[in-house]
Every structure is written in C-alpha cells, then in structure tokens.
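Handoff note, outgoing to incoming analyst
You'll be picking up this chain. Sequence as last confirmed:
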Amino acid sequence: MPSTRKIIRAFLASPGDLQEERKAIRDVVDEFNESWANELGYQVELVGWEETVAGSGRPQHLINQDLDRCDLFLGMIWKRWGTPPGHDFSSGFEEEFERSMARCEETGSPEISLFFKQVPDEFMVDPGDDLKKVIEFRNKTIAGKKILFKNFSTARDIEALARKCVTAYVNRVRDVDELSEPDELRAKRARTSSGDTGEIDKGREPSPLSAEGVDFLENLVGRIRQPDSLDALSASDIARFRLLANSISKPGNEEMNLGVHDINILFGEHTKGMELSKREKHYLTRLGFQHLANENVPLWCWYSALAYSGVDPAVVSSFLQVDENEKVGAISVLTALALDLPTDDDVIKRDILINAWFSDDSSTRVRTAALGYLAKCGTAGDLEVAKKEYDRSDYGTSRSALECMVGILLRTGQAKAAQELVLESQFQTLNADLLRSVLSGFEGLETTALLLGLEHRNSEVRLFAMKSLHGRGALDIGMAEQLAGDSNALVRSEAVKVLLKLGKLLVEEEIREILVPPKKQPTNGLLGLGISAESDKAGEEIFWQYRLDVLKGLSEAELKKRVGASLMYDDAAYFALVERYFRKHADGLRRNVDDKFSAYFEERIRRMEAAFGESSTIQDLVKKTRDLEEFLRKELTRKGLNVLCAAQKPEDLQRIRTNLRDGYTRASKLDAKYLGKHGEWIDIPMLANAEGSSPSAIQLTISGDEDFHVEVARAITSIGKKHSVSDLLSLDMSSAILRKTIELCAESRFSKISRDALLALFNHESEGVRKAAAILAVRSFPAKKIKSILHEYIISDKYRYYNVIHWLDLGASMSRDDARKVARSVGS
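Most recent structure output, in case you need it:
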C-alpha cells in the first residue's frame, strides 16, 4: 500500500440548476477516495466555485486560478446557460470550458469530459434565451467533433457516469506513473513499501510504456529500417508490438483488440523466457478476463503474477472497467476461486463493490455473474441484495436471483425458508443441484405450503409435492383427478397411483388415456398455466411398464393363456410371462432373440388371418402389418434383449455382443449395465461406438442420450479397471463416450496416464474431450508436471489447441489448491 498519495485535481463546472447532480458527483469522489486512495496512492480533489477562496478582483478570475491547476475537467449542463462573468464570455460555464479547451489543445491537459442532461420536450416548445444558448453549444460541440460527450437523465445516471470517468482517469494516470518508472526507481519504491526509505525522483517525465517496452520498440524500429525487414520479423515481434499499442489509450480510444492468436503467441514466448513488463501483464490479464467464457486464451499466468502482489486484479476489473465481458470474466474468476471480497474494515469496501455490480447501469450479464458469486460465496446479509434484484422482475436475472437466494439459504442452514421460496416462485427450470437439495426435505413442510407445489411450473416440484401430500393423506380424489391431466407423464403416473389407492375404479383403457393422452394438452398443474405437453413417448413407456406390472401379478397359467390368444400388437402378456417366470421361459425368449422374432411374427400373422378370415379388409391389414415387419421385429428384439440384460445371466453375453456388433437394434442403458458386469476388453470399442436407442423406441426405462452416455462410460470404466488408463483412453470411442469416460476417471488413476496418451487427448478433434482431459490433468498432477507437459505441448510441431493451453496454464500458474478449486468448480 503506498505510503503517500498523489493528488489529482478535478474541476466541476456547471450552471446553478444542477445542484443535486453536483452533490452526486461529490459523493462519487468521496466514495472513491475512501475506498481506493490509500490502496492506489491517488486521491481526487474536486474543485468548483464552492471551494474558491474569497478575494479581491473578478470572482471568475479567482475560479480560473483553481481551474488552471486541474488535471480533469467535468462539465455538466442542462437548461440554464449561466450568469455572465463580466468579461468576454456570456457565462461562467462558457469561460471555464473554453479556457480548459485552449489549455488542453496547447498542453494536452486537462482531460475534458462533458455531460448533457436530457431536456423535457415541453421546454423545447418555447426554449427561452438560456436554453437556446445551451442548444447552440451542444450543436457546436457535435459539429466540432473534438469532445465526446454523454447524455444523462437523473442524478443516479450522472453518478454512474462520473464514477466511470474518474476511475478510468485515475487508472490511466496510475499506469503511466507506475509503469514508466526506471528500474532503479521501481526498486526504490519496492524498498520503500517494504520499510526502506529512499529519495524518489518526483520530476521524472512519465512515459506510457515500460522500460522493457521502450527497449523492444527501439530495437524493432532499428530492424524495420533494414532492407527486407518484414522477413526478419517473427510472429512474436508483431504480437508484442500490437500488445504495446493496446496498452496506450486515450479517452474515446480505449478499446482493447489484441487477437486471440497474438495472445497465445505471447504466452508461448513467455514460457520460453520472454520478459514482459507489469503493464503488459496487466493488459494480458484484462484480455484474459474478456475472453474467459471462450476458454481460448491464457489468463492464470498473468493473473497470478498480479493477484499475489497487491490488490486482486479480478476485484479491480469487476469494479473499475467498462467492458462488459471483462467485468463478467473477473466476477467469474472470483466465483471460481471462491474468494472473499474485502470487508468493511479494509480499504476496498465489500458493500461498495457489490453495489457497483448491481447498479442500474450494470448489464444483465454482469448482474447475473454477480448473483452467481453471491450464490456461492454470499452471506445471509446478501439475501437482501438478491431479493432486490429478484423484485426487479427482470427476465434476464430473475431466475438467477431466485437461485442465489436459495443457495444462500441452504448454505446458512435455512432449508425450510429455501423450500418455501421455491414453492412461491414459478420458474419452470431451476438449477438441478439446488432443486435436488431443496426437494429432499419437502416431507417436513406444512400442508398449505405443499399445496402451492401442486400448482408449480416445475414438474419435479409438482411431483415431490404430490408424493409428500399423498404420504400424509392430504390428497383427495378431486385433486388427483386434476393432476391426472398434468403435462408431465411422471406426475400423471403418480396421479393414477393415488386414484387407485383412494378407491377410484379405473379400467385399463382409462389409465391409458391418462398416461398417453390422445393429443397434447396445454395444462400444467392445478392452475392450467398453458404449458405444452411433452412427448407422449414418456407416457407410452410408463403405460407399458404399468401393464407389465399388472400382468406379472397373474399366474403362469393365466399368462400363457393370454399369450396364446394375443395378436400382433398385443405383446405385453408375452414379456410379462418371460420376465416373471424367466427360468422356465428363458430358452424360448433366447430363440426369439436369436432369430430376431421372425417365427414369433409369422405366428401372430397366422393368428390374425385365422381369427378374422380372408376378407379384403383383413388382407389389407395383414399387408400393412408386413410393411411394418422390420420395425415391429426390431421393437420386439429390443424388448427381449432388455429382459435378458436385466436377468444378468453370463450365457447371454454373445447375444448382447452380436446385437451391438450388427446394430440390428440400437443399444440401451441395459446393454451397458450388463456388459459392465460381464463384458471384456474386446467389448469396449463396440460398446463405446454403439448408438443409443432412438427417442421413438419404447424402452423399459426412461432415458435420454446423456443418461445413455453416462451408463456406457460406467461400463467401460468397470471393464477397463484391470487395464492401464493409457490403453483404456486410447481405444476407439465416440467423442461423447470418451468425454464421459474421462470425467468418470479417478484422479489417482488418471495421474498414471502416459505422455503419449495424454497428448493424444489434448489433440483430439473434440473440444469436449480436450477440455475434460485438461481439467482432469489439472486436478490430478502437481504443478511441476503440468508445467513440463505444457511446455512440451506448446513446442510440439503438432496442432495446439487454445482451450488446452488455457486449462494447463491454470495448473501451471496457480497454487495447487486454487487450481483444483477452479477445475472442480467448472467441471467439463
């Protein structure tokens, strides 16, 4: 922390109709000085006509003496033009502005910022002399194109604009002063801050570049003057030249636009020994924040060099910078590292930082990122902040605000309050982990609270509320009948169970109409909120399982009788028989699976013809059925294989393999579970590249692609546990399965992977595979090994992927605890 402060004088100019706005700007300056002056070593002194000491002579002359010593001019104007100062100008504001402009053009100082307050339309009808002069001044400013100005409407607006203006100016001055110091002076400053004393040269001329930067440019210019100079320049020369250009800015020309490729080139050269100045690292850190969401540039090397030596750069960028991507990236870093913000006892006040994140001029993305931080790191005191954001009813942040409040409540031991909050809300989708934690304690809520859950937009909330109410006997037939029309198949299924238990007589066809509605229903919960029904395939699957469960309650003789009488499209009795009495009927099922239900199909066709004769109608039905033969037999074979997989008999291994190899039916999760127990090494490539059941196929379990991939990865992990991890992860697999297999790999096991296998994963064509492997490497390896791997990866002649470098940089640059914390928080 600097032991002394440099004073930056800012002059506030405005006519007398902006008193509230002048106070707002003064509050901003006071806030800045209180929060940052000690830490940064720069204090802003705001000067205006209020501070001018009374004296003899023209009053404006005395004000001008203060004006001429200022570094920053803040001009603000609305409807009034001001009072003539008794000289060649029509108002004191005009004289102050023109005098500052003239000095700026001559010396480059002061920096000028101009703000126009929006004039109501009714004043423009008959503007009057003062307002006409304001309008003329505005038009002249626009035509002159010398000053970039901002418009505002309220005192809150000018407060936000002034905060940006002041902090940006102080940052530029600080960068110029700090990074232009000669090496020996910088060393003196370091000794001074550590307790040594030394004379500091206050008369030095500031330079926007560091000594390293100046040396590089001088060398570059010398080489460019030579013949064929472009051929002698390297990619790193050009990249660093562009970086230095980015590090120099002026108001209105502050955009940072160094490309991703150049940033990665500089990182590669830095790992080989290129020395970069603190200023250059500062800008690379900011660029890292800006690109963080894309995971395509190094960040952690530059960040760690600055974070461990003073004010955390993520805190600074989240507060002071204007770029939205930079703020979001900085807050995301604070969240991933779970860093506590400075408390009220520190120089940088936590409440000021959070207020800035949630200010009216903050974008939706910034506020959403801030809510993510509070959800993970917030305290009970932050609930009010999240609630205020929630009450804004902003479509972009409302759900995040709710999840933030729920996260804080759960973390602070207020589970019941979290449950009640979720019940009162009406979000159709919520964070799965949070929702799971909330729902686990639903049984303890009051009945009145649970009744709200029946009307919730989220189907899981409705289902858990329904089960809890049913468990305590608080559901009646009327409620259950309404829930039988729910848009979610699982809720409808639970409603059927409740109705049956309460004594409602339902025949099979009525249950089918509930579980598999004849058309999509726009109802949702007891309120009927107009949510389109999901696919009926889920209902078909549940109804199929319901029929099996009912039929499995019959005797073997009764089931055999029903099977003997069943026709083509009625297979439930057959599968109930072979599943319930598997030992007796397993051989017959295996024969049907082996011939892909060909004989079974022909038998059903003969029964159809025998039962209904040979009329043209029946013959037409038979023809249509034969046209569907391939589809029907595949469905039958898949169901038969599911029964065999569930039985887990070793003698069926070859049948499961044959189907996977030939691809007659798509694979299912049950195949993966079977092979996870009985499979061998040779089964892994076949299983890893099998296609999961299509959404139209009826399965014994409800699942999606994600569930299928996870189950397959588990099976592969189980089969391959006796083999080396290098051999396992080098096998031919689909990208989705390989990524899941990496994610399931234990850190201790992955730490034994060979360099060749690891580099192959880092150069995989799938971004998801590369990311999963890089993140697991960060979690599994010590920093020394990661640095070695990173160096080898960068210098390799093979293609290098930026997302791999981004994550390996994390493991190589941050402490092991922090690197693992970030890697585990991000996942894959």
